[in-house]
Amino acid sequence: MVLSKFSLFVCIRLYNLQFNMCSFWKFCWQLSGKSSSLHGNAIVSNNVCMTLTPKNQGIQAVLSSNSGTDVSTVTKRGGLRGKLNKVVLAYSGGLDTSVIVPWLRENYGCEVVCFTADVGQGIKELDGLEAKAKASGACQLVVKDLKEEFVKDYIFPCLRAGAIYERKYLLGTSMARPVIAKAMVDVAREVGADAVSHGCTGKGNDQVRFELTFFALNPELNVVAPWREWDITGREDAIEYAKKHNVPVPVTKKSIYSRDRNLWHLSHEGDILEDPANEPKEDMYMMSVDPKDAPDKPQYVKIGIESGIPVSLDGKTYSPAELLATLNEIGGKHGIGRIDMVENRLVGMKSRGVYETPGGTILFNAVRELESLTLDRETIQVKDSLALKYAELVYAGRWFDPLRESMDAFMEKITETTTGSVTLKLYKGSVSVTGRTSAYSLYREDISSFESGDIYNQADAAGFIRLYGLPMRVRAMLNKGI
Protein backbone atom coordinates (compact mmCIF):
# COMPACT_ATOMS: atom_id res chain seq x y z
CA MET A 1 0.00 0.00 0.00
CA VAL A 2 1.28 3.45 -0.91
CA LEU A 3 0.48 6.27 1.52
CA SER A 4 -0.32 9.81 0.42
CA LYS A 5 1.43 12.85 1.86
CA PHE A 6 -1.74 13.71 3.72
CA SER A 7 -1.83 10.24 5.32
CA LEU A 8 1.74 10.66 6.44
CA PHE A 9 0.88 13.98 8.04
CA VAL A 10 -2.05 12.43 9.86
CA CYS A 11 0.13 9.57 11.13
CA ILE A 12 2.60 11.97 12.64
CA ARG A 13 0.00 14.18 14.26
CA LEU A 14 -1.95 11.29 15.74
CA TYR A 15 0.90 9.50 17.43
CA ASN A 16 3.32 12.37 18.01
CA LEU A 17 6.28 9.97 17.79
CA GLN A 18 9.87 10.76 17.00
CA PHE A 19 11.41 8.15 14.74
CA ASN A 20 14.61 8.04 12.77
CA MET A 21 14.11 7.69 9.01
CA CYS A 22 14.48 3.92 9.03
CA SER A 23 11.96 3.41 11.85
CA PHE A 24 9.63 5.98 10.29
CA TRP A 25 9.23 4.12 6.98
CA LYS A 26 8.90 0.84 8.87
CA PHE A 27 6.13 2.40 10.90
CA CYS A 28 4.27 3.58 7.84
CA TRP A 29 4.62 0.19 6.18
CA GLN A 30 3.14 -1.54 9.22
CA LEU A 31 0.10 0.74 9.13
CA SER A 32 -1.02 -1.13 6.04
CA GLY A 33 -1.08 -4.39 8.01
CA LYS A 34 -3.53 -5.75 10.54
CA SER A 35 -4.31 -4.01 13.79
CA SER A 36 -3.24 -5.79 16.95
CA SER A 37 -5.61 -7.42 19.38
CA LEU A 38 -4.74 -4.61 21.78
CA HIS A 39 -6.63 -2.15 19.58
CA GLY A 40 -3.57 -0.33 18.39
CA ASN A 41 -1.30 -0.48 15.38
CA ALA A 42 1.51 -2.98 15.79
CA ILE A 43 5.19 -2.92 15.04
CA VAL A 44 6.88 -6.30 15.06
CA SER A 45 10.65 -6.21 15.57
CA ASN A 46 12.96 -8.85 16.99
CA ASN A 47 9.94 -10.96 17.91
CA VAL A 48 8.65 -8.32 20.31
CA CYS A 49 5.26 -6.78 19.70
CA MET A 50 5.13 -3.08 20.62
CA THR A 51 1.72 -1.47 20.69
CA LEU A 52 1.52 2.25 20.06
CA THR A 53 -1.05 3.96 22.24
CA PRO A 54 -2.34 7.52 21.95
CA LYS A 55 -0.24 10.45 23.09
CA ASN A 56 0.72 10.61 26.82
CA GLN A 57 -0.20 6.97 27.40
CA GLY A 58 3.29 5.67 26.78
CA ILE A 59 4.60 2.62 24.94
CA GLN A 60 3.83 -0.89 26.16
CA ALA A 61 5.82 -3.99 25.33
CA VAL A 62 4.37 -7.51 25.28
CA LEU A 63 5.57 -10.87 24.04
CA SER A 64 4.37 -12.01 20.67
CA SER A 65 2.58 -15.35 20.68
CA ASN A 66 5.36 -17.14 18.81
CA SER A 67 8.32 -15.87 20.83
CA GLY A 68 10.11 -16.71 24.03
CA THR A 69 11.86 -13.35 24.16
CA ASP A 70 11.76 -11.72 27.58
CA VAL A 71 10.43 -8.23 28.23
CA SER A 72 13.91 -7.30 29.38
CA THR A 73 14.97 -7.35 25.73
CA VAL A 74 13.18 -4.03 25.46
CA THR A 75 13.76 -2.58 28.89
CA LYS A 76 17.50 -3.22 28.80
CA ARG A 77 17.77 -0.67 26.01
CA GLY A 78 16.78 2.04 28.46
CA GLY A 79 18.77 3.87 31.10
CA LEU A 80 22.39 4.58 30.29
CA ARG A 81 22.80 1.80 27.74
CA GLY A 82 24.08 3.14 24.48
CA LYS A 83 24.74 6.54 26.04
CA LEU A 84 28.18 5.99 27.57
CA ASN A 85 31.41 6.55 25.67
CA LYS A 86 34.08 5.44 28.11
CA VAL A 87 33.99 3.73 31.50
CA VAL A 88 36.74 3.47 34.10
CA LEU A 89 36.49 0.08 35.81
CA ALA A 90 38.02 -0.77 39.19
CA TYR A 91 39.99 -3.80 38.02
CA SER A 92 41.74 -6.52 39.99
CA GLY A 93 42.16 -9.16 37.29
CA GLY A 94 40.00 -11.61 39.19
CA LEU A 95 37.01 -13.46 37.83
CA ASP A 96 34.37 -10.79 38.44
CA THR A 97 36.22 -7.80 37.01
CA SER A 98 37.57 -9.84 34.10
CA VAL A 99 34.01 -10.71 33.12
CA ILE A 100 32.78 -7.15 33.60
CA VAL A 101 35.03 -5.84 30.81
CA PRO A 102 33.32 -7.71 27.94
CA TRP A 103 29.95 -7.29 29.65
CA LEU A 104 30.29 -3.50 29.63
CA ARG A 105 31.30 -3.50 25.98
CA GLU A 106 28.48 -5.85 25.03
CA ASN A 107 25.73 -4.10 26.98
CA TYR A 108 26.81 -0.46 26.95
CA GLY A 109 28.79 -0.32 23.71
CA CYS A 110 31.51 1.72 25.41
CA GLU A 111 35.28 1.67 25.72
CA VAL A 112 36.58 0.24 28.99
CA VAL A 113 39.62 1.63 30.78
CA CYS A 114 40.74 -0.69 33.56
CA PHE A 115 42.17 0.91 36.67
CA THR A 116 44.24 -0.87 39.29
CA ALA A 117 45.37 0.76 42.50
CA ASP A 118 48.49 -0.54 44.19
CA VAL A 119 47.55 -0.31 47.86
CA GLY A 120 50.01 -2.98 48.93
CA GLN A 121 48.15 -6.10 47.81
CA GLY A 122 51.41 -7.65 46.64
CA ILE A 123 53.43 -7.62 43.44
CA LYS A 124 52.09 -11.02 42.35
CA GLU A 125 48.61 -9.58 41.91
CA LEU A 126 49.99 -6.99 39.48
CA ASP A 127 51.98 -9.41 37.32
CA GLY A 128 50.60 -9.75 33.79
CA LEU A 129 47.65 -7.52 34.59
CA GLU A 130 47.88 -5.35 31.47
CA ALA A 131 47.90 -8.33 29.11
CA LYS A 132 44.98 -9.85 30.99
CA ALA A 133 42.96 -6.61 30.84
CA LYS A 134 43.49 -6.20 27.10
CA ALA A 135 42.70 -9.86 26.49
CA SER A 136 39.38 -9.23 28.22
CA GLY A 137 38.64 -6.36 25.83
CA ALA A 138 39.88 -3.28 27.70
CA CYS A 139 41.42 -0.51 25.64
CA GLN A 140 43.83 0.53 28.39
CA LEU A 141 45.09 -0.35 31.88
CA VAL A 142 46.07 2.40 34.30
CA VAL A 143 48.01 1.43 37.42
CA LYS A 144 48.75 3.91 40.22
CA ASP A 145 50.94 3.37 43.26
CA LEU A 146 48.80 4.64 46.15
CA LYS A 147 50.62 2.97 49.05
CA GLU A 148 52.08 6.09 50.64
CA GLU A 149 48.89 8.09 50.15
CA PHE A 150 46.84 5.21 51.54
CA VAL A 151 48.84 4.97 54.75
CA LYS A 152 49.51 8.69 55.27
CA ASP A 153 46.10 10.14 54.40
CA TYR A 154 43.72 7.31 55.32
CA ILE A 155 45.23 4.75 57.68
CA PHE A 156 47.10 7.11 59.98
CA PRO A 157 44.13 9.48 60.53
CA CYS A 158 42.03 6.46 61.57
CA LEU A 159 44.86 5.29 63.80
CA ARG A 160 45.12 8.72 65.42
CA ALA A 161 41.35 8.73 65.97
CA GLY A 162 41.39 5.26 67.53
CA ALA A 163 38.71 4.13 65.08
CA ILE A 164 37.77 0.47 65.56
CA TYR A 165 34.47 -0.90 64.21
CA GLU A 166 32.43 -3.02 66.62
CA ARG A 167 35.32 -3.39 69.09
CA LYS A 168 37.44 -5.53 66.75
CA TYR A 169 37.65 -4.54 63.09
CA LEU A 170 40.54 -2.23 62.22
CA LEU A 171 38.82 -1.05 59.01
CA GLY A 172 41.30 -2.41 56.47
CA THR A 173 38.97 -2.65 53.47
CA SER A 174 36.90 0.34 54.62
CA MET A 175 39.90 2.68 54.45
CA ALA A 176 41.14 1.34 51.11
CA ARG A 177 37.95 1.90 49.11
CA PRO A 178 37.85 5.73 49.29
CA VAL A 179 41.48 6.11 48.23
CA ILE A 180 40.85 3.80 45.25
CA ALA A 181 37.59 5.53 44.33
CA LYS A 182 39.21 8.95 44.56
CA ALA A 183 41.93 7.80 42.14
CA MET A 184 39.24 6.46 39.79
CA VAL A 185 37.62 9.89 39.67
CA ASP A 186 40.99 11.39 38.79
CA VAL A 187 41.60 8.80 36.06
CA ALA A 188 38.12 9.36 34.64
CA ARG A 189 38.98 13.03 34.24
CA GLU A 190 42.37 12.23 32.71
CA VAL A 191 41.06 9.81 30.06
CA GLY A 192 37.81 11.68 29.39
CA ALA A 193 35.49 8.98 30.75
CA ASP A 194 31.86 9.74 31.49
CA ALA A 195 31.28 6.79 33.84
CA VAL A 196 32.92 4.59 36.46
CA SER A 197 32.22 0.98 37.33
CA HIS A 198 33.03 -1.53 40.06
CA GLY A 199 32.63 -5.24 40.69
CA CYS A 200 31.01 -5.01 44.12
CA THR A 201 27.98 -7.19 44.77
CA GLY A 202 24.60 -5.84 45.81
CA LYS A 203 24.95 -7.48 49.21
CA GLY A 204 28.19 -5.90 50.39
CA ASN A 205 29.52 -2.71 51.94
CA ASP A 206 32.00 -1.87 49.19
CA GLN A 207 29.37 -0.76 46.68
CA VAL A 208 28.38 1.97 49.12
CA ARG A 209 31.97 2.99 49.83
CA PHE A 210 32.83 3.34 46.15
CA GLU A 211 29.70 5.16 45.12
CA LEU A 212 29.55 7.63 48.02
CA THR A 213 33.08 8.66 47.10
CA PHE A 214 32.08 9.09 43.46
CA PHE A 215 29.10 11.21 44.52
CA ALA A 216 31.23 13.37 46.80
CA LEU A 217 34.04 14.04 44.34
CA ASN A 218 32.25 14.15 40.98
CA PRO A 219 28.44 13.93 41.08
CA GLU A 220 28.32 14.21 37.28
CA LEU A 221 29.94 10.81 36.74
CA ASN A 222 27.61 7.95 35.86
CA VAL A 223 28.00 4.75 37.87
CA VAL A 224 27.56 1.25 36.46
CA ALA A 225 27.28 -1.63 38.94
CA PRO A 226 27.01 -4.86 36.90
CA TRP A 227 26.16 -7.08 39.87
CA ARG A 228 22.96 -5.10 40.31
CA GLU A 229 22.04 -5.43 36.63
CA TRP A 230 23.25 -8.57 34.96
CA ASP A 231 21.85 -12.10 34.88
CA ILE A 232 25.01 -13.63 36.33
CA THR A 233 24.04 -15.01 39.71
CA GLY A 234 27.28 -16.54 40.94
CA ARG A 235 30.72 -17.89 40.24
CA GLU A 236 29.48 -20.70 37.99
CA ASP A 237 27.65 -18.29 35.70
CA ALA A 238 30.63 -15.93 35.62
CA ILE A 239 32.99 -18.72 34.56
CA GLU A 240 30.65 -19.80 31.79
CA TYR A 241 30.34 -16.19 30.58
CA ALA A 242 34.13 -15.86 30.60
CA LYS A 243 34.54 -19.03 28.53
CA LYS A 244 31.92 -17.84 26.06
CA HIS A 245 33.80 -14.57 25.53
CA ASN A 246 37.29 -16.11 25.59
CA VAL A 247 38.24 -14.22 28.74
CA PRO A 248 41.21 -15.68 30.67
CA VAL A 249 40.34 -16.16 34.36
CA PRO A 250 42.61 -17.46 37.14
CA VAL A 251 40.06 -19.60 39.00
CA THR A 252 38.18 -22.85 38.69
CA LYS A 253 34.63 -23.73 39.66
CA LYS A 254 35.83 -24.96 43.05
CA SER A 255 34.73 -22.77 45.98
CA ILE A 256 37.53 -20.64 47.43
CA TYR A 257 37.91 -17.91 50.05
CA SER A 258 37.05 -14.36 49.16
CA ARG A 259 40.05 -12.26 50.12
CA ASP A 260 40.95 -8.60 50.14
CA ARG A 261 44.55 -7.64 50.77
CA ASN A 262 46.26 -4.32 51.18
CA LEU A 263 49.15 -2.90 53.16
CA TRP A 264 47.03 -2.71 56.33
CA HIS A 265 45.39 -6.13 56.43
CA LEU A 266 44.23 -9.32 54.75
CA SER A 267 40.58 -10.35 55.06
CA HIS A 268 39.10 -13.81 54.56
CA GLU A 269 35.44 -14.58 53.89
CA GLY A 270 33.40 -17.39 52.38
CA ASP A 271 33.91 -21.14 52.15
CA ILE A 272 33.79 -22.78 55.61
CA LEU A 273 33.83 -19.35 57.27
CA GLU A 274 30.21 -18.83 56.27
CA ASP A 275 29.29 -21.02 59.24
CA PRO A 276 30.30 -19.06 62.38
CA ALA A 277 30.66 -22.36 64.24
CA ASN A 278 33.59 -23.48 62.07
CA GLU A 279 37.13 -22.86 63.20
CA PRO A 280 39.32 -21.37 60.45
CA LYS A 281 41.82 -23.74 58.90
CA GLU A 282 45.41 -22.90 59.62
CA ASP A 283 46.42 -23.02 55.96
CA MET A 284 44.06 -20.11 55.28
CA TYR A 285 46.34 -17.55 56.96
CA MET A 286 48.87 -15.78 54.77
CA MET A 287 50.30 -12.82 56.72
CA SER A 288 50.88 -14.42 60.10
CA VAL A 289 52.16 -17.67 61.54
CA ASP A 290 50.28 -19.76 64.05
CA PRO A 291 51.12 -18.20 67.45
CA LYS A 292 52.20 -21.61 68.79
CA ASP A 293 54.77 -21.77 65.98
CA ALA A 294 56.07 -18.26 66.63
CA PRO A 295 59.57 -17.77 68.09
CA ASP A 296 60.01 -18.87 71.71
CA LYS A 297 61.93 -15.68 72.44
CA PRO A 298 59.98 -12.38 72.59
CA GLN A 299 60.96 -9.40 70.46
CA TYR A 300 60.91 -5.82 71.69
CA VAL A 301 60.09 -2.92 69.35
CA LYS A 302 60.15 0.79 70.08
CA ILE A 303 57.63 2.93 68.17
CA GLY A 304 58.27 6.67 67.85
CA ILE A 305 55.14 8.84 67.60
CA GLU A 306 54.65 12.51 66.73
CA SER A 307 51.25 14.15 67.32
CA GLY A 308 49.48 10.81 67.29
CA ILE A 309 51.20 9.58 64.10
CA PRO A 310 53.86 6.82 64.08
CA VAL A 311 57.13 7.93 62.50
CA SER A 312 59.92 5.57 63.56
CA LEU A 313 60.84 2.04 64.58
CA ASP A 314 63.69 1.37 66.98
CA GLY A 315 65.01 4.88 66.43
CA LYS A 316 64.98 4.70 62.62
CA THR A 317 62.63 6.97 60.67
CA TYR A 318 60.52 5.38 57.93
CA SER A 319 58.00 6.63 55.42
CA PRO A 320 54.41 5.70 56.39
CA ALA A 321 54.19 2.77 53.95
CA GLU A 322 57.69 1.51 54.78
CA LEU A 323 56.98 1.59 58.51
CA LEU A 324 53.77 -0.39 58.14
CA ALA A 325 55.33 -2.93 55.76
CA THR A 326 58.22 -3.52 58.17
CA LEU A 327 55.89 -4.00 61.13
CA ASN A 328 53.76 -6.41 59.11
CA GLU A 329 56.77 -8.65 58.68
CA ILE A 330 57.75 -8.43 62.34
CA GLY A 331 54.22 -8.86 63.65
CA GLY A 332 53.40 -11.68 61.24
CA LYS A 333 56.47 -13.59 62.39
CA HIS A 334 55.11 -13.52 65.95
CA GLY A 335 51.51 -14.39 65.04
CA ILE A 336 50.21 -10.91 65.90
CA GLY A 337 46.89 -9.45 64.73
CA ARG A 338 44.50 -12.32 64.01
CA ILE A 339 40.84 -11.41 64.48
CA ASP A 340 37.79 -13.65 63.97
CA MET A 341 34.50 -11.76 64.15
CA VAL A 342 30.86 -11.62 63.16
CA GLU A 343 30.11 -8.07 62.08
CA ASN A 344 27.04 -6.10 61.10
CA ARG A 345 27.25 -5.02 57.49
CA LEU A 346 25.94 -1.63 56.50
CA VAL A 347 23.25 -3.23 54.30
CA GLY A 348 21.74 -4.96 57.33
CA MET A 349 22.98 -8.55 57.33
CA LYS A 350 25.58 -10.11 59.54
CA SER A 351 28.75 -11.58 58.05
CA ARG A 352 31.66 -13.54 59.43
CA GLY A 353 35.19 -12.55 58.54
CA VAL A 354 38.71 -13.37 59.64
CA TYR A 355 41.30 -10.60 59.49
CA GLU A 356 45.07 -10.47 59.71
CA THR A 357 46.42 -7.05 60.73
CA PRO A 358 49.87 -7.60 62.27
CA GLY A 359 51.46 -4.18 61.81
CA GLY A 360 48.22 -2.34 62.49
CA THR A 361 47.67 -4.16 65.78
CA ILE A 362 51.14 -3.14 66.96
CA LEU A 363 50.58 0.50 66.01
CA PHE A 364 47.15 0.71 67.64
CA ASN A 365 48.59 -0.55 70.92
CA ALA A 366 51.46 1.93 70.71
CA VAL A 367 49.33 5.02 70.06
CA ARG A 368 46.73 4.10 72.68
CA GLU A 369 49.36 3.56 75.35
CA LEU A 370 51.09 6.85 74.64
CA GLU A 371 47.74 8.63 74.99
CA SER A 372 47.50 7.25 78.52
CA LEU A 373 50.39 9.60 79.33
CA THR A 374 49.44 12.66 77.29
CA LEU A 375 45.64 12.94 77.53
CA ASP A 376 43.58 13.63 80.63
CA ARG A 377 40.56 11.56 81.67
CA GLU A 378 37.83 13.79 80.22
CA THR A 379 39.64 14.12 76.90
CA ILE A 380 40.15 10.37 76.60
CA GLN A 381 36.47 9.73 77.31
CA VAL A 382 35.29 12.23 74.69
CA LYS A 383 37.86 10.98 72.18
CA ASP A 384 36.80 7.36 72.71
CA SER A 385 33.13 8.21 72.25
CA LEU A 386 33.85 10.08 69.02
CA ALA A 387 36.09 7.26 67.82
CA LEU A 388 33.05 4.96 67.71
CA LYS A 389 31.21 7.35 65.40
CA TYR A 390 34.35 7.97 63.38
CA ALA A 391 34.70 4.23 62.78
CA GLU A 392 31.03 3.92 61.78
CA LEU A 393 31.41 6.70 59.21
CA VAL A 394 34.51 5.11 57.70
CA TYR A 395 32.91 1.66 57.65
CA ALA A 396 29.85 3.14 55.93
CA GLY A 397 31.93 4.74 53.16
CA ARG A 398 31.44 8.33 54.34
CA TRP A 399 35.11 9.27 54.25
CA PHE A 400 34.45 12.54 52.45
CA ASP A 401 31.49 13.40 54.65
CA PRO A 402 31.90 16.82 56.35
CA LEU A 403 31.15 15.17 59.71
CA ARG A 404 34.14 12.83 59.47
CA GLU A 405 36.36 15.65 58.25
CA SER A 406 35.27 17.82 61.18
CA MET A 407 35.86 14.99 63.64
CA ASP A 408 39.29 14.47 62.11
CA ALA A 409 40.13 18.11 62.76
CA PHE A 410 39.23 17.53 66.42
CA MET A 411 41.39 14.40 66.56
CA GLU A 412 44.32 16.25 65.02
CA LYS A 413 44.02 19.08 67.53
CA ILE A 414 43.54 16.91 70.60
CA THR A 415 46.58 14.72 69.83
CA GLU A 416 49.05 17.58 69.25
CA THR A 417 50.88 16.58 72.43
CA THR A 418 50.70 12.81 71.81
CA THR A 419 54.40 12.69 71.05
CA GLY A 420 56.92 10.26 72.46
CA SER A 421 57.80 6.58 72.24
CA VAL A 422 56.33 3.25 73.33
CA THR A 423 58.18 -0.02 73.81
CA LEU A 424 56.20 -3.18 73.06
CA LYS A 425 56.86 -6.84 73.70
CA LEU A 426 55.77 -9.25 70.96
CA TYR A 427 55.39 -12.86 71.98
CA LYS A 428 53.34 -15.71 70.46
CA GLY A 429 50.39 -13.68 69.27
CA SER A 430 50.33 -11.14 72.10
CA VAL A 431 51.34 -7.48 72.28
CA SER A 432 52.16 -6.05 75.68
CA VAL A 433 53.51 -2.64 76.63
CA THR A 434 56.69 -2.45 78.65
CA GLY A 435 57.48 1.28 78.54
CA ARG A 436 56.18 4.71 77.55
CA THR A 437 57.93 8.10 77.48
CA SER A 438 56.81 11.60 76.44
CA ALA A 439 57.98 15.15 76.99
CA TYR A 440 54.28 16.03 77.31
CA SER A 441 53.49 13.37 79.89
CA LEU A 442 50.85 14.32 82.46
CA TYR A 443 52.21 11.65 84.74
CA ARG A 444 54.20 13.07 87.68
CA GLU A 445 56.12 10.67 89.82
CA ASP A 446 56.29 13.20 92.65
CA ILE A 447 52.49 13.30 92.71
CA SER A 448 51.72 9.64 92.05
CA SER A 449 54.28 8.28 94.51
CA PHE A 450 53.02 6.76 97.77
CA GLU A 451 55.43 9.05 99.52
CA SER A 452 54.06 12.33 100.90
CA GLY A 453 54.60 15.38 98.72
CA ASP A 454 53.97 19.10 98.65
CA ILE A 455 51.49 19.06 95.73
CA TYR A 456 49.13 16.32 96.90
CA ASN A 457 48.10 16.33 100.54
CA GLN A 458 46.51 13.00 101.39
CA ALA A 459 44.42 14.64 104.11
CA ASP A 460 42.51 16.51 101.39
CA ALA A 461 41.00 13.23 100.20
CA ALA A 462 38.59 13.08 103.17
CA GLY A 463 36.79 16.27 102.17
CA PHE A 464 36.76 15.26 98.51
CA ILE A 465 35.18 11.90 99.29
CA ARG A 466 32.46 13.52 101.46
CA LEU A 467 31.51 15.95 98.69
CA TYR A 468 31.84 13.42 95.83
CA GLY A 469 29.70 10.89 97.71
CA LEU A 470 27.09 13.40 98.91
CA PRO A 471 24.33 12.34 96.42
CA MET A 472 24.70 8.69 97.47
CA ARG A 473 24.64 9.64 101.14
CA VAL A 474 21.50 11.75 100.72
CA ARG A 475 19.69 8.92 98.91
CA ALA A 476 20.60 6.45 101.67
CA MET A 477 19.36 8.91 104.31
CA LEU A 478 16.04 9.24 102.44
CA ASN A 479 15.60 5.47 102.26
CA LYS A 480 16.23 5.15 106.01
CA GLY A 481 13.99 8.09 106.90
CA ILE A 482 16.84 10.08 108.37
TrEMBL record:
Enzyme Commission number(s) of this protein: 6.3.4.5
Pathway it works in: Amino-acid biosynthesis; L-arginine biosynthesis; L-arginine from L-ornithine and carbamoyl phosphate: step 2/3
Protein name: argininosuccinate synthase
Keywords noted in UniProt: Amino-acid biosynthesis, Arginine biosynthesis, ATP-binding, Ligase, Nucleotide-binding
Location of the Arginosuccinate synthase C-terminal domain: 257-474
Domain Arginosuccinate synthase-like N-terminal intervals: 86-248
Record-linked Gene3D superfamilies: Argininosuccinate synthetase, chain A, domain 2, HUPs, Single helix bin
PANTHER family noted in UniProt: ARGININOSUCCINATE SYNTHASE
Signal peptide: none
Pfam families: Arginosuc_syn_C, Arginosuc_synth
InterPro entries: Arginosuc_syn_C (IPR048268), Arginosuc_syn_N (IPR048267), Arginosuc_synth (IPR001518), Arginosuc_synth_CS (IPR018223), Arginosuc_synth_type_1_subfam (IPR023434), AS_cat/multimer_dom_body (IPR024074), Rossmann-like_a/b/a_fold (IPR014729)
Class of enzymatic activity (EC top level): ligase
